[in-house]
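Sat 14:20. Reprocessing the chain from the morning session after the first attempt stalled halfway. Input below, unchanged.
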Amino acid sequence: MLSILLPTDFSENSKNAIKYALELYKDEDCKFHFLHCYPPVIFSYEYQIEKGLIGKDIHKILQEESKERLYEFVLSLMRKHGNDQEFDIEVVKGFLPDRISKAVSDKKIELIVMGTKGETDSDRVVFGSNTIQVINKRCCPVVAVPDDYKFAGIENILFPSDLNLAFKHKHFQPILNILKLHNSNIKVLHIAMQDLTPLQKIHKEFIKETFTDYNTTYDILEEKNIADVIYAYQQKHNSELLMMINNKHTFFENLFFKPTISKIAMHLQTPFMVIPA
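Finished this time. Tokens:
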């Protein structure tokens, strides 16, 4: 049974990401773990008097109210989407990236699906701070779903790589699950600065062997501006999911988290799966 963590702050972005996950895995034997995290707060004495909170356990009140809201929120979504998979809910105090890491460990989470940004992030933000922190913790594969993206099947998955990473079978398991569930195609894109090294050739053969049972295409493009190449390739060859492996020794962080946001990140319109190396 696949264990999937769905964090929510009740924002439209997180709600949309949950809808995406419910559709993506509706035919999978899985359990959804819904998590709401509220930050530690201190109320002024005047506010406590106004709300009649003097002498009461404020955090317990907040937790109970949030738990009730989360249960109603989840029940409504599950009924609407006709999902009969198992689910549980949890409301915790703390900071979301830390609480997600703990949930991954405690509940043996295999995948996180979340919005690209939260309720307080600007419209001009590509990835919210929580999303970046969760991805960079590298504790679990993450699918980040852009604002307003609606699930309409997955025909093609794009996997760009510099072929410098020594791949392992665990890196590809989340994608293999989706390929099997949706009978998808996978497009492997290598941006070459020079001819393949002997080690890169070995890594390419590993990829071929991994995807041997699926419709796979391989493209090699020569270009120095990796971000522009991926963006242009996405525009020309439709893909419903972008997959990358997050390793500090690859080009991943330069593509998405450098000070000058790259074109691919700025125009990200499809869900983005990040798999820790």
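The CA atoms of residues 166 and 203 lie 6 Å apart.
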